[in-house]
């Protein structure tokens, strides 16, 4: 494990790295043979930063900066190389952590190159998992641990610096890490070796076989197995234009973020907003309680603004600007042509890979498996939820006319605000007062008590044992099995938001268990709860309670996975080979505790002011309020899921222009007229800006379907410990060791049912008399 950096071939490293790190410098070159002293025989491509001169009389090479960090002079690298028990979160300097991680990534890049050269000479009969894959996994383990720990430090305790510089540093090291770890899959010798191992199965463990299967699926779905020049050239052309128009689309969105802001100075206008929303909207974060507050043209602020701003005219203006963002109203940043180019080039890429449509390509390895399955799922939900929305419009309109003096029909800009307020009024729930039942640490202790009971787990606070922490607020828990005594790993949780903390709620797998090194699993959990003050503890709004439950669910999911390999610990997004439409099943299962009155009451605490417990009756009202208030957001999610699938399931995108489809579907879904300048797909990044996410917008509803189906099983079996143990052994312990559909069937004994999610959003009592759901629809 202890490895000196001096063993790497710097010449090979420079050859591989130089075209990545010159980044547009002016480099008039014909070749670099002599510079690399005949060691190198690889071709290097340089992007010309200026017009090629008529006559090249010389050349120069700009070498990348290689950090001088080694295990001898860098305590962060030493800690990892020596397999020490706990990372240097406090004693390692930020510079040591960043430059040390960069150096480890560069070392790993050189290792990959050398190993690929070795595989080219390794006879087929000598190939084994231990000499084909293990040499890379050994170093990947250390590199990933360093990278995840660096990200934890950067997000929670990094020195003050320019935001753009920080974002650039974080972005570049993320790209560097992802690129280096995927590079092995592009090598033909590696592909042939793992294919041979997978087909023979000789000496492979179950986990090793699954990892090789995952590699092969990713290779096929990415087109890395196409080696003939003609196909490679076609794929390269499609990919080039996809990247180009994706970049243009994102530029159009980002460039219009600050063109409009919507300022609130009167606290009465935003009086219902909880503290975490006020912090998001505050012009000055230090004065979030007194304002002023503003909504910007970003999802991070515009959706909370629409939900809590009581000024209807301001909401109308904000929504108009938001839905026209990067649309036809903008001459230079009009994304319409970029949408069509993205559709065209992604369609060409998918067909070159052998798929009939973009949707078929993206869904091939997902739990849903095909566009037809997703279409059936969306149709089943639409048939149940749309009548409820139409019926509920009357309640929303009546409430708005009575309390908000909104005359006439409700409009799109009213819905987030009115739906929330009407639900709270309908069940007489005050969310701000409800926060007094949910102080952070008592709530967290109650959650681990409930989860521990259901899944036979023990969470032991070991914070005082002297482990290093990036911040004093953090706590550390050892997690094990109550009955068998098996140690699952340790959970590091940093719960509160603070000035130098970046990002929001997040969970990371720091490292899997490594028996060879004698190391256990570590999971990092980053929270974003309001920090306690001298006058009181941190209190959770029900939105933050849902975030806590979801991300704690992810933490438990990672801890219980028995996979020895990170790539198949859980179905990771955004890999083509992973069925990550099911990845959020268990986190959503815990998140749904807020809609179960008995569970909600169990994780609550006595009211801080009155010392009264949250009664089951009050908990029931809260659960119904949360479900009722979420109906409109769920319906919009259903609309976008349908639009996403409809755009990408076409075998020929020329069948319908994106705007024509948007207009048609908008009219089908919504009871009000679409605004003339509503071009929201032009800025809807989840559908058009992220390549692997195309056709995947349904996944939130899919995860809810799986989670609520499991809740229904718990209710029917009425033995939470027995059912929880079965869920743990059949699904959670298996991680991504098998396809999600098969794991779910092992737990349920059947395929998923849409019945529970339909009943959740459209309770049978609310369905119009005589309307029945067919047996096929429930299935």
TrEMBL record:
Its cofactor is Zn(2+). Residues 305-762 form the Peptidase M3A/M3B catalytic domain. Keywords: Hydrolase, Metal-binding, Metalloprotease, Protease, Zinc. Binds 1 zinc ion. It comes from the Eukaryota. GO terms for molecular function: metal ion binding; metalloendopeptidase activity. GO terms for biological process: proteolysis. Pfam families: Peptidase_M3. The keyword Metal-binding applies. Belongs to the peptidase M3 family. This is Peptidase M3A/M3B catalytic domain-containing protein. The lineage of its organism: Eukaryota, Metazoa, Ecdysozoa, Nematoda, Chromadorea.
């Amino acid at each position: 494990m202890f490895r000196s950096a001096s063993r790497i071939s710097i010449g090979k490293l420079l050859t591989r790295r130089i075209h990545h790190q010159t980044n547009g410098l002016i480099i008039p070159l014909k070749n670099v043979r002599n510079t690399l002293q005949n060691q190198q025989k690889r071709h290097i491509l340089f992007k010309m930063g200026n017009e090629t001169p008529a006559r090249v009389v010389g050349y120069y090479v700009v070498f990348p900066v290689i950090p001088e960090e080694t295990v001898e002079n860098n305590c962060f690298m030493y800690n990892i190389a020596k397999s020490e028990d706990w990372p240097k979160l406090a004693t390692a300097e930020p510079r040591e952590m960043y430059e040390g991680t960069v150096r480890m990534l560069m070392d790993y890049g050189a290792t990959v190159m050398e190993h690929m050269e070795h595989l080219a000479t390794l006879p087929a009969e000598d190939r084994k998992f231990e000499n084909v894959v293990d040499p890379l996994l050994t170093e990947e383990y250390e590199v990933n641990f360093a990278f995840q720990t660096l990200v934890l430090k950067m997000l929670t305790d990094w020195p003050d610096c320019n935001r753009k510089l920080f974002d650039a540093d974080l972005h570049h090291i993320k790209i560097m890490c992802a690129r280096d770890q995927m590079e092995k899959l592009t090598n033909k010798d590696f592909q042939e070796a793992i294919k041979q191992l997978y087909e023979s199965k000789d000496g492979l463990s179950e986990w090793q076989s699954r990892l090789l299967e995952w590699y092969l699926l990713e290779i096929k779905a990415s087109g890395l197995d196409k080696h003939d020049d003609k196909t490679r050239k076609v794929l390269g052309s499609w990919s080039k234009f996809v990247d180009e128009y994706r970049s243009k689309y994102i530029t159009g969105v980002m460039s219009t973020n600050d063109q409009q802001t919507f300022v609130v100075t009167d606290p009465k206008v935003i009086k219902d907003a909880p503290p975490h929303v006020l912090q998001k909207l505050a012009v000055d974060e230090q004065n979030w309680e007194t304002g002023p507050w503003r909504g910007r043209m970003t999802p991070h602020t515009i959706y909370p603004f629409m939900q809590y701003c009581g000024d209807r005219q301001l909401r109308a203006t904000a929504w108009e600007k938001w839905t026209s963002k990067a649309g036809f109203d903008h001459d230079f940043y009009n994304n319409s042509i970029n949408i069509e180019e993205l559709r065209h080039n992604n369609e060409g890429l998918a067909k070159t890979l052998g798929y009939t449509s973009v949707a078929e390509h993206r869904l091939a390895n997902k739990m849903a498996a095909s566009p037809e399955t997703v279409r059936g799922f969306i149709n089943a939900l639409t048939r149940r939820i749309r009548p409820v929305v139409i019926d509920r419009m009357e309640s929303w309109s009546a409430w708005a006319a009575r309390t908000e003096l909104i005359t006439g029909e409700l409009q799109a800009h009213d819905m987030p605000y009115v739906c929330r307020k009407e639900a709270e009024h309908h069940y007489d729930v005050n969310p701000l007062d409800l926060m007094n039942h949910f102080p952070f640490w008592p709530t967290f202790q109650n959650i681990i008590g409930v989860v521990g009971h259901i899944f036979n787990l023990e969470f032991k606070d070991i914070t005082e044992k002297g482990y290093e922490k990036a911040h004093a607020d953090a706590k550390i828990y050892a997690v094990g099995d109550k009955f068998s005594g098996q140690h699952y790993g340790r959970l590091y949780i940093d719960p509160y938001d603070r000035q130098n903390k970046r990002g929001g709620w997040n969970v990371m797998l720091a490292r899997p268990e490594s028996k060879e090194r004698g190391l256990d699993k570590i999971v990092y959990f980053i929270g974003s709860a309001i920090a306690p003050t001298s006058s009181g503890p941190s209190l959770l709004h029900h939105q933050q309670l849902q975030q806590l439950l979801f991300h704690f669910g992810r933490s438990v999911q990672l801890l219980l996975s028995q996979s020895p390999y990170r790539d198949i610990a859980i179905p990771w997004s955004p890999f083509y080979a992973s069925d990550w439409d099911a990845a959020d099943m268990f986190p959503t299962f815990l998140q749904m505790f807020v809609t179960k009155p008995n569970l909600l009451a169990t994780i609550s605490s006595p009211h801080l002011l009155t010392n009264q417990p949250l009664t089951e009756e009050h908990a029931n009202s809260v659960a119904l309020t949360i479900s009722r208030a979420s109906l409109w957001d769920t319906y919009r999610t259903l609309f976008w899921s349908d639009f996403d699938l409809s755009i990408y399931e076409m075998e020929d995108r020329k069948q319908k222009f994106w705007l024509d489809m948007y207009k048609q579907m908008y009219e089908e879904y919504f009871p009000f007229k679409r605004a003339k300048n509503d071009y929201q797909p032009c800025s809807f990044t989840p559908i058009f800006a992220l390549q692997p996410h195309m056709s995947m917008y349904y996944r939130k509803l899919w995860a809810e379907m799986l989670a609520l189906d499991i809740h229904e099983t718990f209710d029917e079996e009425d033995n939470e410990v027995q059912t929880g143990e079965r869920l743990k052994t059949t699904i959670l312990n298996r991680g991504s060791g098998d396809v999600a559909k098969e794991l779910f069937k092992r737990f349920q004994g059947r395929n998923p049912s849409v019945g529970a999610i339909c009943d959740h959003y459209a309770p049978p009592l609310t369905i119009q008399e005589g309307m029945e759901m067919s047996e096929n629809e429930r299935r």
